[in-house]
Amino acid sequence: MSSAFPRFRGKWRHRAIVNPKEFLRRYYPDLRAPRRCLVVWNPRLAERLAERFRGARVPALAPFYVVPGGESPVGLVCPRGVGAPTTITQCEELAAAGTREFLGVGTAGGLSPSLASGEVVVCDGAVRDEGTSHHYAPAHVPARPSPTLRRWVERTLERAGVSFRVGPSWTTDAPYRETVPELRHYRSRGVLTVEMEASAMFLFGRARRVQVASVFVISDHLTDRGWDPRLHEVTGRLEDVAAAVLGGSLSSPGSRSARGGTPRAGSTGVVRRGSPRSADRSRSRS
Predict the structure, then answer these.
(1) Contact at 8 Å (CB) between 78 and 47?
(2) What's the CATH number where 130 sits?
(3) Calpha distance 214→107 (Å, rounded)
(4) Is residue 68 part of a domain?
(5) Where would you tag: which of 4, 28, 47, 94 has the fewest CB atoms within 10 A of its CB?
(6) Is the preceding peptide bond at 6 cis, omega within 30 degrees of 0?
(7) b/e per residue, 165-191, with b = 16+ CB within 10 A?
């Protein structure tokens, strides 16, 4: 048995036993998801956006809304918990139901002293320091968003008057195990943020040939002296950014006819969900 992760080498070459399409066929046979879906990790944010854009709740999977639009509707989903496993489980099921574009809008910790609370970062790549992505592609495969969808996000934020920076993120499964040596290591290499989902979302997109992009609002800071939390200060800013992305999707879908997918890297199945968790009351960023 290999000591590398995942434990079974070359698993990406093999078909998964559990398939999300089979899961939907058995339990949600009538579910049809919009082509584009906005992913947020705060239940109250999802509710506010659904009310603001007159979204209709769909009684399936996690909290999920369909927001009507001029050309086509947009999905709005809040996974049942933060982190890569629950997020990718939800994305797998939505992809099986028809979603081809995923836009993640969440919070992230800032690694750079030049980043202020509430500042916006569009992610252009991620360090794979979580487990889920390694079940989708070998460790040497970089975690990158769809170039087409990322450029659409940048143009949409510019039109909405939202200033932003572009840079890489560090994705981790263990927010209570972020250390000063790690902070210094990634900061010295130009990594701007830390969060819990981006690298897994990007490799899921590569494997399933769907487009994925992520944008973050800085909600706290990691420093050599410790943690500087500002989550309570950026709630409004996060809603504004999410509303700009959702509103832009409804009025100018942009990339829906584009082909920005990446080569297929393997196959996987559904992981069963854990218990619900409120992002508002959690130390975790998403």
Answers:
(1) no
(2) 3.40.50.1580
(3) 10
(4) yes
(5) 4
(6) yes
(7) eebbbbbbeebeebeeebbeebbeeeb
Given 3-state DSSP classes, what are the helix, strand and coil percentages for the chain, each rounded to the nearest 5? 35, 20, 45
pLDDT in tens, the chain (286 residues): 555 788 898 888 899 999 999 999 999 999 999 999 999 999 999 999 999 999 999 987 779 999 998 779 999 999 999 999 999 999 999 999 999 999 999 999 999 999 999 999 999 999 999 999 999 999 999 999 999 999 999 999 999 999 999 999 999 999 999 999 999 999 999 999 999 999 999 999 999 999 999 999 999 999 999 999 999 999 999 999 999 999 999 986 544 443 333 333 322 222 222 333 333 434 567 8
- How many domains, in total, are found in the chain? 1
User: Within its chain, how far is the Cα of 280 from the centroid?
Assistant: 17
Is 134 inside a domain boundary?
Answer: yes
| pTM score, whole prediction | 0.89
Query: 40 and 63 in contact (C-beta within 8 Å)?
Result: no
**161 located within any domain:** yes
260 found inside a domain: no
- Record the tokens describing residue 228, joined without a space: 């500087």
